[in-house]
């Protein structure tokens, strides 16, 4: 989402694009970490294959985070009519809350996500 998105592309398109891209990265990450963990434990055969499900878990979690983040950021930008640091920070906090809802400390997840999104915006705006 570079610059002003005005009314040219629906927010759902950004959300689907983000889900596919980041969800695929999550699948790749899960494949690598699952295989690494199985190797560290010295597993072989069927027991090693049980670590393959971590790929799907990471893919779904990352895809969900990206979908909520993109949809919220786009919606806020359209609603407020401004392209500033508030949109990614609020969107990051919302996405962190959604993902961290199952965790014990969802407030920490929301805060960290908002902070990371603020840093991302600062880096994006600097270029």
TrEMBL record:
InterPro entries: TIM22
Membrane topology qualifier: Multi-pass membrane protein
Pfam families xrefs: Tim17 (PF02466)
GO process terms (BP): protein insertion into mitochondrial inner membrane
Taxonomic superkingdom: Eukaryota
Organism: Coffea arabica (Arabian coffee)
An example molecular function term from Gene Ontology annotations: protein transmembrane transporter activity
Protein name: Outer envelope pore protein 16-4, chloroplastic-like isoform X5
Locations listed in the record: Membrane
């Amino acid at each position: 989402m570079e610059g002003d998105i005005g009314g040219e592309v629906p927010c759902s398109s950004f959300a689907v694009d983000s889900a596919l891209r980041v969800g695929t990265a999550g699948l790749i990450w899960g494949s690598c970490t699952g295989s690494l963990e199985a190797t560290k434990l010295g597993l072989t055969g069927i027991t090693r294959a049980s670590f393959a499900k971590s790929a799907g878990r990471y893919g779904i979690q990352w895809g969900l985070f990206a979908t909520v983040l993109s949809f919220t950021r786009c919606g806020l930008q359209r609603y407020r009519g401004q392209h500033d640091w508030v949109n990614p920070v609020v969107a990051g906090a919302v996405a962190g809350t959604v993902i961290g809802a199952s965790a014990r400390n969802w407030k920490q997840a929301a805060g960290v996500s908002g902070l990371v999104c603020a840093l991302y915006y600062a880096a994006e705006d600097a270029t």
